[in-house]
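dumping this here so i dont lose it
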């Protein structure tokens, strides 16, 4: 078979290799920049988003826009409410909003640096987004950012914990049921959870009132304790569970 340059180029584009090469060029360009400086990147199907030099943002960009980590949700048609728990700098939120032009989205992120970049990345969607600087918990309690390193300790792995009795809270936690109630929607079409271990608390108590009002849930589980707690919460539910890379995907059947 004769070599077909056009077909070869198209295949590379479909595989995301062209985007990967562009990302490599962006990484080289950032080496000379001060830490945290915002660099515009072109995200497929989304447009320009911002990435901070010398942070984990490039890794998140690769996961969301090149590896398409949330492709497992691409079959959902016309979702109403999307809640992004652990929104980081907003790449997943932007992916969802660009794909679903009529959806409303709530993005929750506790870290102030991540939240500032999140706000910049979702500025074009102001009319369809609610941004909440907070941590997701099982109840509305006081929180502080954890001092202990979780994962690799980079910006995509920051965690929260309840404040101690002698400690002033830095944040007021939100719970998923409260977010749903304030949204004005009856159900959550897409619930994305990536909260670096706090899912163990979220699914240990006070989840019964809202979990039956979720259509599709996608979660990254951090360790066997989190997985066991999550699976126990799902036991009485009519749900189909699948995997997509590091994600656990749950499709809930609505009551008849």
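and the seq i came up w/
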């Amino acid at each position: 078979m004769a070599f077909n340059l056009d077909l070869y180029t198209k295949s590379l584009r479909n595989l995301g290799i062209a985007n990967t090469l562009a990302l490599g060029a962006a990484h080289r360009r950032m080496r000379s920049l001060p830490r945290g400086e915002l660099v515009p990147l072109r995200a497929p199907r989304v447009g320009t988003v911002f990435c901070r030099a010398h942070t984990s943002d490039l890794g998140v960009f690769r996961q969301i826009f090149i590896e398409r980590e949330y492709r497992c949700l691409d079959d959902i048609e016309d979702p109403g409410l999307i809640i992004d728990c652990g929104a980081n700098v907003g790449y997943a939120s932007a992916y969802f909003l660009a794909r679903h032009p009529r959806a409303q989205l709530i993005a929750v992120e506790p870290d102030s640096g991540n939240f500032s970049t999140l706000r910049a990345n979702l500025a074009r969607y102001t009319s369809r987004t609610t941004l909440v600087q907070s941590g997701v918990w099982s109840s509305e309690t006081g929180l502080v950012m954890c001092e202990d390193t979780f994962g690799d300790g980079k910006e995509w792995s920051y965690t929260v914990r309840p404040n101690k009795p002698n400690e002033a809270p830095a944040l007021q936690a939100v719970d998923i049921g409260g977010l749903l109630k304030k949204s004005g929607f009856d159900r959550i079409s897409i619930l994305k959870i990536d909260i670096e271990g706090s899912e163990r608390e979220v699914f240990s108590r006070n989840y019964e009132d809202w979990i039956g009002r979720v259509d599709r849930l996608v979660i990254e589980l951090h360790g066997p304790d989190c997985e066991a707690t999550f699976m126990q919460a799902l036991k009485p539910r009519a749900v189909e569970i699948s995997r997509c890379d590091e994600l656990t995907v749950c499709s809930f059947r609505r009551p008849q």
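The chain has two domains: 1-68, 69-252.
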